[in-house]
Amino acid sequence: MAAENPVNIAVVGVGYWGKNYVRLTSENPLTNLVGMCDMHPPTLEKAKARFPGVPAFSSVDDLLAVPELEAVVIVVPAKYHHGVGMQILNAGKHVLMEKPLAVSVEECKELVAAAEANSVRLLVGHTFLFNSSVAKMKAMVDTHDVGDTHYVYAKRTNLGPVRQDVSALWDLATHDISVFLYLLAGTDVEWVSCTGSSLLPGSDLADVVFVTMGFKDSPVIAHVHASWMDPNKEREIVVVGSKGRVVFEDTAINHPVKVFFKGPDELQEAGDVVDSGHFTDYMFSARKGDVFMPHIDKVEPLGAQMTEFVNAIRTPSADMRSDGHFGHKVVSILNAAESSLQQGGARVTI
Description:
Blueprint: E1 7-12, H1 18-27, E2 31-37, H2 41-50, E3 56-57, H3 60-64, E4 71-74, H4 81-89, E5 94-98, H5 105-117, E6 122-125, H6 132-142, E7 149-159, H7 168-183, E8 189-197, E9 208-215, E10 221-227, E11 229-241, E12 245-249, E13 257-260, E14 263-264, E15 268-269, E16 282-283, E17 286-287, E18 291-292, H8 301-314, H9 324-342, E19 348-349
Helix pairs in contact: 4-5, 5-9, 7-9
């Protein structure tokens, strides 16, 4: 059933990932796909064969000439995000930019400023924020179901696919960094440390990275291990709290979220020793608890993201969980991590 006022939308970049947006916007009742664009002729020809009823364009200028066009999804290599994004925003069109927002803090600032100057919405495609399991984790963190958050960590590994344009830091770790910011909303990152290695011959891009982040006025630590050179596929995000831990395993089909209500009770005084304030005066009392697997109402993250984008366009006051300012924060962390990587893991203050 079609919506009463669908957004007239187009997709720029219809290759490996962009074709998913073409499918989504052509099927979603909230959107009316009025065009697709790609500057690479073979890619555009494949898209035309797959979506024969969609008007195809080989330049952004020609696409912007479509009179009914309101919004554009940009799915081009990250180094082109700023140029293409500025052109479309300054044409007065709403933009959904595939992550990352841009490759530098300066470019992010310009994109955010252009969106505000032209009174259009800018959403960054950090798709995992729209995952039902991540939403469940967020709700449990916010309600302190597992107590106060002590630390969070993530592992995102697989054997490929290898990117030629960005490192594993920008391609993989960015997912978990965005999730950490979402889960720990209201707490700003203070410093970043990153180590890694380039394993493939002929490339200086990091194939494996270990990123650690510290937060302002908070003891919480966050850590990410990301690699496309690991034969074992793992996609795990963990929140460890004072009362237990929440685990999201993206590869688990039936029960992706598990809650372990087990942890240390409050520190117990060891016998009748005098409290000197030293850790040896205390001991832990282990608390055993249940394992809970909450029901997850699964939705397609891309679809949920598009719904939020459309709602933000039609309701200008509506919040977006990954707006331009959020995307800017993610890129500032990635830039700091890149700088740390070049310095052998030194802490870089944001």
